[in-house]
Amino acid sequence: MARLAGVSRATVSYVLNNTSAVRISEPTRRRVHEAARELGYVPHAAARSLRAGHSRMVLMPAPAVPVGPLYSRFLSELQSALGRLDYTVVQYGTVGRQGDEAARAWAELRPVAVLVPGTGIGPQGVAVLKRAGARAVVTLGPERVEGAHALLMDHEAVGHCVGAHLHARGRRRVGVVVPEEEGLEAFSRPRLAGVRQALRGTDASVTELPLAYTEQAAAELAARWAGSGLDAVFAYNDEYAMLLMRALQDEGLRVPEDVAVVGADDLMLGRLLRPRLTTVHIELPSGRELAELVDQAVRDPGAEPEVRKVLGAALVRRESS
Amino acid sequence: MARLAGVSRATVSYVLNNTSAVRISEPTRRRVHEAARELGYVPHAAARSLRAGHSRMVLMPAPAVPVGPLYSRFLSELQSALGRLDYTVVQYGTVGRQGDEAARAWAELRPVAVLVPGTGIGPQGVAVLKRAGARAVVTLGPERVEGAHALLMDHEAVGHCVGAHLHARGRRRVGVVVPEEEGLEAFSRPRLAGVRQALRGTDASVTELPLAYTEQAAAELAARWAGSGLDAVFAYNDEYAMLLMRALQDEGLRVPEDVAVVGADDLMLGRLLRPRLTTVHIELPSGRELAELVDQAVRDPGAEPEVRKVLGAALVRRESS
DNA sequence: TTGAAAGCGTTACCAC
DNA sequence: GTGGTAACGCTTTCAA
């Protein structure tokens, strides 16, 4: 490299890293800096981490499906928090790879920590990553994975508080929307299960309602509504709730008199609908909190994997139920 | 490494990379594969790209602000398309760094191509990246950057077609919402400028309306509406349009009789509002198309930078204007 | 068919 | 203060 500053590579390294252990003469420093600028020199991250034997890279698989505003806010918060702790966050696009194959692809980058949302990894995958030098593997999902720290996101709780609420409001025939879009099962299944659990042992029934996110699908579902006898619906989230509520209203059904509609995620749009949408406010962990957990785990890789419940679900009653 | 398969490192490399130039005996292959599995061996990406002198990494800065459904769809499409061409897409979280500093940080990773949305890079940054071995730099933004391929996203066109539409509908006092949220200026400014341009030389006036994405801010704006004399508003996008339209309606104003409301992005929610929201349908380049452009550029780095207009804007008239 | 060795860009460690 | 040297893990060239 910039040996054409007339100095050795080691000297360059010292100057550019401001190594305090050795003193470099001012003129030399200047020459090095000058040469670096002139040549447009930038250090080679791969070489550096190869030599160092570790990096400060925190790897996250990039979500394959477009993800809601809630989660993307959380993501960018997390990124800046980790950035402040001097980690580099990298979202890695793992195309078609599944499970352990994906884990191996991630391991090739030798990240110091890996954050895996959903059910994208199993115990074997965790083991691969750890052998590859990852000092922390953190999952964000419905259940813990052997060997990894876990941030438990209990989406059943979301469904549960909706079920309990609807029952308390006297509803007995509850429909639950299950989106047909791919990649949402990880959330929709537990939400449905939560409703079921809340209503188990009561006189209320739960009906699963597959629904694609199109006006037509919603209209068809609404057209069948009268015959279904359902008096309430948990619409998966606020966006599906808006879609379905509109279709129900267009069909002449009154919300909430004929049918109660409940969304989830507490998005702005729920407040703007008429009737205002009852929803579930979801409290995700702050990016700062998760960043600190990662940092802890990296500093002390031997520690017992931490398991923490991080999803707060609170029903926000408005006018639609 | 796995020399404990009883063979040399070279042999391992051959086997695992399926190098066709040399023939390795079946038993040896087996032993290597077995040892690799047993040890949980995964190749070291840094070492590989260091030796090879290049990688297949396509780098994109991770958006710092939560980004709309339109753009995230485009992103994931692009990711899979590039994945199919055997590139690895990496979103790199560039925290606070600005301009050339950011470019230097990206260059450290020695990506084969860099995709930069917005105005995140200048000619110098492009030069740094190219010197660092990037064979293609592609910007997605309002204007081209010296030395880089450009996908021109002309958001002025969005504003322009709204301005023209409103004028044709007889509106003469047009408000344009400019979000107060950070990171949106890159879109809101050109959209405003487009409206101005469309109405320049006519008898219509354009008024800038700063608006935060809160109910209260919208209510305040709506309360001032009667005194403003505005008979139309371009609300930046469908979400701001929904917010503002609700506030206007709550204030007793009729849409579109008293005030026409136009959104943009053609989101589902616009179709669900009543009155149905007039909007601008935005056609982004397909991920496949962009992936091919990147691949082209990587294969032929000497070629003249390509400049392509990729943002199609078409007004979708519904009921709100 | 296999093994040995060089070298990619860094940095830590010793001599100078 | 400064400069040479080795080593990180891998691929490739060349020799056995």
From TrEMBL, chains A, B:
Keyword DNA-binding belongs to the record: yes
The keyword Translocase belongs to this UniProt entry's keyword annotation: no
Name of the protein in question: LacI family transcriptional regulator
InterPro entries: HTH_LacI, LacI/GalR-like_sensor, Lambda_DNA-bd_dom_sf, Peripla_BP_I
UniProt xrefs under PANTHER family: LACI-RELATED TRANSCRIPTIONAL REPRESSOR (PTHR30146), LACTOSE OPERON REPRESSOR (PTHR30146:SF153)
Ranges of residues in domain HTH lacI-type: 1-52
UniProt keyword list: DNA-binding, Transcription, Transcription regulation
SUPFAM superfamilies: lambda repressor-like DNA-binding domains (SSF47413), Periplasmic binding protein-like I (SSF53822)
Coiled-coil stretches noted in the UniProt entry, renumbered to this chain: none
CDD domains assigned: HTH_LacI, PBP1_LacI_sugar_binding-like
GO MF assignments: DNA-binding transcription factor activity; transcription cis-regulatory region binding
Native organism: Streptomyces collinus (strain DSM 40733 / Tue 365)
